[in-house]
Amino acid sequence: QVQLVESGGELVPAGGSLRLSCAASGRTFSYYVMGWFRQAPGKEREFVAGISWIVGSTSYTDSVKGRFTISRDYAKNTLYLQMNSLKPEDTAVYYCAAGVSRLIQSRVAGYDYWGQGTQVTVSS
Fold first, then answer.
1. Backbone angles phi, psi at 29, to 5 degrees
2. 3-state SS, one letter per residue, for 78-117
3. What three-state secondary structure class fits 16?
4. What tens digit of pLDDT does each residue of 5-62 get?
5. DSSP string, 35-71
6. What does the CA dihedral 110, 114, 118, 120 come to, rounded to 10 degrees?
């Protein structure tokens, strides 16, 4: 099993920045990709960004390209999401996920382990 714990979510004004963290523990050698998803009230969970844990290649959904950066600290088993130029539409619960696929997945079903989520609220 893999345990994922997110942190860093808070209330920020539009145009502000936040860095989310996701600490992984347990069988951390068992996954190859990690990702960030978000879910706004009344909406489905959507892919935000993904990273290949070993190689470091990344993928982003179009709405966050140029504003968000996903990264990982391999030694600390920690995933990050740097979010800049935040917009009110970025408001959501952000989830960290890990998967055994060797390719970055944008589908919720492509990930095997999930954190509990952290709330990000962007005020206008």
1. -85, -5
2. EEEEEECCCCHHHCEEEEEEEECCCCCCCCHHHCCEECCC
3. coil
4. 999 999 999 999 999 999 999 887 778 899 999 999 999 999 999 999 888 899 999 9
5. EEEEE-TTS--EEEEEEETTT--EEE-GGGTTTEEEE
6. 0
